[in-house]
């Protein structure tokens, strides 16, 4: 139980080594299908980081992953495994769409706060039911949240096809949001500072909201009483009860915040990019959030970095599929390897490293 | 199988001889150059504080760990013990502190588990039945062979463990803290069994922290401190004081020096308190008691007779029915309008029985633990939203200084402190809130002798400051020496109250076993 490694090794070295291993194995796979891994890496780096256009996409994806990663991370601190980010983000999209379509918004500065509230409320509401079942009935949150992903998708399907589809449209999607809800892109935001940023890339002001969310989550978890109680409950429920912390309250609070964060993703992809609500708008970002939280050690800063990494993988992978013979599926393989090594195979790197540090300390002692 | 059955023969060969055993776990040297000789047909005690390396040494002997250096001689022969099977073949039997029995098997089934012979169970069972019968006659080891383990009390379960070892033809029996869960009467019976075993030529190693037991039953005793064997003595030629000093490395006050209590007004009144657990079992069956300011009420009893539930319901952790008044005001027991927080607000502080599970958040740093349960106190907030982490850290530094927590580093996670220092962190938190009533469970369980003295003194100081203390402990000595009044619990009821000066371990032991002391 004792701490054998310095903290920096735990939070920096282990993910880094895991990452290198994942990339090495990816390289082996690329060689095995007869492609050049070095060229592939070059392509990915140029495609994801080589221009402001590339960055614009990388950051756009990263924004999604920051929100879903934070969602998983907050729940993790209460020892709740919220794998319902997908569904909560889907419902967040519904919230955003309802807000955006409800009024002829004059300006985005008015629409954005309302959309943020709508997204958070709908995401939280979708997390509330599994949370309640867990807190009161002991229904396992993993089971219920994943089931709610499917229910969420079905609900949205129904609403888009039968209720929200504009008359005469054949597309299961809402009408385009009014112009007053158009969010400024990074191009718009950086232009006043004389920084030229690609006009075509979808990264928008939501990225700043995501960064703010990181800071707020940090303050919540490590500086507020609620965060203190969430962490206490996560480490030991008997101790929480001893301290007069009510587990039901904490489960509800942690899951509502988690669901709200997942829902906020919709501000980026629904309001910031698509500007209308379509089917399957989340595109798996809810699940990527699990890997992001795992890799980021449930710390907002770690989540931020991991989200950027996955944004890079997403965008770089798309480029790779577009410009080389490396099939799209291989990109999924690389992403899966990263998830496998950074998330699931944590101990594989950790144990030898711990032994190494023990040896080092013994040498010094 | 088989093994070398030549234990007798050489007259002077020690049953066990350890030469230069060393074992390190990373930077921690758990055992350092340990040598030990135990002669056959003797009872050898090993004492030492927690973390002194006793358990590591015995685990090496039983094949759980491999020593980094040194050798083991059994009956004069060098023996490799790579695993517990080898230990059993070498004639070593181990009785663990936590029993390793299959609860829904019968005694007989447990005894043959792992040494069944042939494809069918029946012949093995029949053979075991015969062996058990003769063992019972030889050593007063009576257990119903067809009883299910789950129906047996702890004393009986322990006998089954001993029978298991003997059935495997152990000549050397190692017992790890065997009396921790026994009533005094059960412990006496165990000692009779051990003496019988000894007279039959078995060798017994007794690991304990109870110096009284060492004095009562062992022939020789070894003291361990910080991974080293600091002394091996003839029991007849030593005293508890000397042993304690050897264990701690300095003079220790074994007797508690306390002033007579001056009880004041009644702080805690409990009437007909009942608790039913989640399985529908009634754990408290109408408990009534009261504690006055400036006195310590000790609750004696064998673990599992409702003491835990008493502390938990008073501390707001579980609901109950009945009446509990603190300073004359009734408190809500339903759990709907009250919890640990509201209890604290009413002046009840609680040092829980299990500090690692309840009293502390082990991965939290010491400073985070120092406000645990009081974290809503306005004094610990920076503003409406954020906690005053820097202030709490400073507070933790001061508290750790005052309670002599070592190392005095508030940034260290609670799990990195020793048991005694963890307990000091809990006490520093609870006592310094200056509560009207302190609930304290097993204050010195798993705590080093050196820290025990300190912890007892702090609890007495609180009493002398005019506060009420409800002390629950399974250590009868602790109850007798600390309490101003003693209530004995058995099966969820208070069997009776005694004054420490007017009772003894005999009488309390009978009450703990469910007999009314006066009637017996």
UniProtKB/TrEMBL annotation, chain A:
Its main location: membrane. GO terms for cellular component: plasma membrane. It is a multi-pass membrane protein. The chain crosses the membrane at residues 12-34, 54-76, 88-105, 111-129, 141-161, 200-221, 250-271, 303-324, 330-349. Keywords: Cell membrane, Membrane, Transmembrane, Transmembrane helix. Coiled coil: none annotated. GO terms for molecular function: transmembrane transporter activity. InterPro entries: ABC_transp_permease. It is found in: Cell membrane. The keyword Protein biosynthesis does not apply. This is Nucleoside ABC transporter membrane protein. It comes from Rhodovulum marinum. The lineage of its organism: Bacteria, Pseudomonadati, Pseudomonadota, Alphaproteobacteria, Rhodobacterales.
TrEMBL record, chain B:
PROSITE patterns: ABC_TRANSPORTER_1 (PS00211), ABC_TRANSPORTER_2 (PS50893). It is a peripheral membrane protein. SUPFAM superfamilies: P-loop containing nucleoside triphosphate hydrolases (SSF52540). It holds the Pfam family ABC_tran. Coiled coil: none annotated. One of its GO terms (molecular function) is ATP hydrolysis activity. It is found in: Cell membrane. The keyword Repeat applies. One of its GO terms (cellular component) is plasma membrane. Keywords: ATP-binding, Cell membrane, Membrane, Nucleotide-binding, Repeat, Sugar transport, Translocase, Transport. It comes from the Bacteria. Residues 16-251, 268-516 form the ABC transporter domain. Belongs to the ABC transporter superfamily. This is Nucleoside ABC transporter ATP-binding protein.
């Amino acid at each position: 139980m004792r701490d054998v490694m310095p903290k920096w090794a735990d939070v920096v070295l282990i993910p880094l080594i895991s990452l290198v291993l994942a990339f090495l194995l990816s390289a082996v796979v690329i060689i095995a299908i007869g492609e050049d891994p070095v060229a592939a890496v070059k392509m990915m780096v140029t495609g994801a980081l080589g221009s402001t256009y590339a960055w614009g996409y990388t950051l756009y994806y990263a924004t999604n992953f920051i929100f879903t990663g934070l969602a998983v991370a907050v729940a993790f601190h209460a020892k709740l495994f919220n794998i319902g980010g997908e569904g909560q983000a889907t419902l967040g999209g519904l919230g955003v769409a309802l807000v955006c379509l409800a009024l002829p918004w004059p300006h985005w500065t008015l629409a954005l706060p309302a959309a943020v509230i709508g997204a958070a409320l709908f995401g939280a509401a979708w997390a509330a039911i599994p949370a309640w079942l867990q807190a009161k009935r002991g229904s396992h949150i993993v089971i219920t949240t994943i089931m709610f992903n499917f229910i969420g998708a079905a609900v949205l399907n129904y609403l888009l096809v039968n209720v929200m589809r504009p008359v005469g449209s054949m597309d299961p999607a809402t009408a385009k949001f009014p112009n007053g809800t158009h969010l400024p892109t990074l191009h718009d935001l950086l232009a006043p500072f004389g920084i030229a940023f690609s006009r075509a890339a979808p990264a928008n002001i939501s990225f700043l909201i995501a960064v703010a969310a990181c800071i707020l989550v940090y303050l919540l978890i490590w500086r507020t009483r609620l965060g203190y109680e969430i962490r206490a409950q996560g480490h030991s429920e008997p101790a929480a009860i001893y301290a007069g912390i009510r587990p039901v309250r904490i489960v509800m609070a942690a899951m509502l915040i988690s669901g709200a964060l997942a829902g906020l993703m919709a501000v980026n992809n629904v309001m910031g990019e698509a500007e209308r609500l379509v089917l399957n708008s989340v595109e798996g970002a809810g699940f990527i959030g699990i890997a992001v939280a795992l890799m980021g050690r449930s710390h907002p800063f770690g989540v931020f970095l991991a989200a950027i990494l996955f944004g890079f993988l997403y965008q770089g992978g798309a480029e790779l599929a577009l410009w080389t013979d490396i099939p799209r599926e291989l990109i999924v393989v690389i992403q899966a390897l990263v998830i496998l090594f950074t998330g699931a195979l944590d101990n594989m790197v950790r144990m030898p490293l711990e032994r190494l540090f023990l040896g080092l300390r013994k040498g010094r002692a | 199988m088989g093994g070398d059955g030549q234990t007798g023969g050489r007259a002077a060969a020690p049953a066990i001889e350890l030469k230069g055993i060393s074992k390190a776990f990373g930077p921690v040297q758990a055992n350092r150059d340990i040598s030990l000789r135990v002669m056959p047909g003797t009872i050898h005690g090993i004492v030492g504080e927690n973390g002194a390396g006793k358990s590591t040494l015995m685990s090496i002997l039983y094949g759980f760990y491999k020593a980094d250096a040194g050798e083991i001689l059994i009956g004069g022969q060098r023996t490799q013990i790579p695993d517990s099977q080898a230990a059993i073949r070498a004639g070593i039997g181990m009785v663990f502190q936590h029993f390793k029995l299959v609860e829904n098997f019968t005694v007989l089934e447990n005894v043959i588990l792992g040494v069944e012979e042939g494809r069918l169970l029946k012949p093995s069972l029949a053979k075991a039945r015969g062996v058990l019968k003769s063992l019972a006659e030889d050593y007063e080891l009576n257990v119903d062979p067809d009883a299910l383990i789950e129906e047996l009390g702890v004393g009986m379960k322990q006998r089954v463990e001993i029978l298991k070892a003997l059935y495997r033809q152990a000549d050397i029996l190692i017992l790890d803290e065997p009396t921790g869960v026994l009533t005094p009467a059960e412990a006496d019976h165990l000692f009779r069994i051990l003496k019988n075993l000894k007279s039959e030529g078995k060798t017994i190693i007794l690991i304990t922290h109870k110096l009284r037991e060492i004095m009562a039953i062992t022939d020789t005793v070894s003291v361990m401190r910080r991974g080293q064997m600091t002394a091996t003595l003839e029991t007849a030629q030593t005293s508890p004081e000397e042993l304690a000093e050897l264990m701690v490395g300095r003079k220790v006050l074994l007797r508690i020096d306390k002033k007579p209590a001056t009880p004041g007004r009644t702080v805690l009144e409990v009437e007909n308190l009942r608790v039913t657990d989640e399985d529908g079992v009634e754990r408290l069956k109408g408990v009534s008691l009261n504690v006055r300011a400036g006195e310590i009420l000790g609750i004696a009893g064998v673990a599992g007779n409702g003491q835990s539930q008493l502390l938990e319901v008073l501390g707001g952790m579980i609901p109950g029915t009945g009446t509990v008044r603190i300073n004359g005001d009734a408190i809500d027991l339903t759990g709907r309008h009250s919890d640990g927080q509201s209890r604290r607000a009413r002046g009840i502080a609680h040092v829980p029985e299990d500090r690692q599970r309840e009293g502390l958040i082990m991965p939290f740093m010491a400073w985070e633990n120092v406000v645990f349960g009081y974290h809503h106190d306005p004094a610990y907030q920076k503003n409406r939203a954020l906690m005053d982490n820097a202030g709490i850290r400073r507070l933790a530094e001061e508290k750790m200084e005052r309670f002599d927590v070592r190392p005095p580093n508030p940034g260290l996670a609670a799990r990195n402190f020793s048991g005694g220092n963890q307990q000091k962190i809990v006490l520093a938190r609870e006592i310094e809130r200056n509560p009207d009533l302190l609930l304290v469970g097993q204050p010195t369980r798993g705590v080093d002798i050196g820290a025990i003295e300190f912890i007892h003194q702090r609890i007495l100081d609180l009493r002398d400051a005019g506060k009420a203390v409800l002390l629950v402990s399974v250590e009868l000595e602790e109850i007798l020496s600390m309490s101003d009044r003693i209530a004995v619990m058995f099966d969820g009821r208070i069997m009776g109250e005694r004054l420490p000066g007017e009772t003894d371990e005999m009488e309390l032991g009978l009450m703990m076993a469910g007999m009314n002391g006066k009637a017996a």
